[in-house]
Amino acid sequence: MPHLRELVKLHEDQPFAIIGVNTGDSESDFRAGVEKFDVSWISAYQGEKSPIADLYRVQGYPTYVLLDTDGKIVKKGHSGSAMDGDIERLLKAAAKKGD
After folding, report:
1. Which candidate, 45, 37, 41, places its Cα nearest to that of 21?
2. In angstroms, what CA-CA distances link 2 with 39, 74, 94, 97?
3. CA separation for the pair 98, 59 (Å, rounded)
4. Which residue range forms the structural domain that includes residue 41?
5. Is residue 99 in some structural domain?
6. What is the pTM of this model?
7. I need a labelling partner for 16 at 20 to 30 A (CA). Which of 9, 26, 64, 89 fits?
8. pLDDT band at 99 (very low <50, low <70, confident <90, very high)
9. Quick check: is 86 in a domain?
10. Looking at the domain assignment, is residue 33 inside a domain?
11. Nearest CA to 21 among 13, 86, 54, 91?
12. How many domains does the chain have?
């Protein structure tokens, strides 16, 4: 969670967003965790039967899916920090696209 919080702060004025989907906890545990860890990004609870997890073929947790500005999957993995370089590259490309 600390790394995700850093990313949100670092890219707050850029076309960057984190969306969390919880499928493994009970709804009450999910809500308690959002409060405990001060989650400031969009975070949704879907329970064990998750259409989003099925859509993105999630097989382990956590799973990170990086999308470009067109909604295409650029990278998928289990380490958020492993995507930092890809995030920077996509943000630079988005800035150029917006010029």
Report:
1. 45
2. 10, 23, 25, 30
3. 35
4. 2-93
5. no
6. 0.79
7. 26
8. low
9. yes
10. yes
11. 54
12. 1
State pLDDT tens for residues 12-44.
999 999 999 999 889 999 999 999 999 999 999
Per the domain annotation, does 65 fall within a domain? yes
Whole-number average pLDDT of the chain: 90
Using left for φ > 0, alpha for ψ between -120 and 50, and beta otherwise, residue 39 falls in beta
pLDDT category at 89 given cuts 50, 70, 90 is very high
Radius of gyration over every alpha carbon of the chain, rounded to an integer in angstroms: 14
Grade residue 1 by pLDDT with cuts at 50, 70 and 90.
confident
Tokens matching residue 20: 């969390």
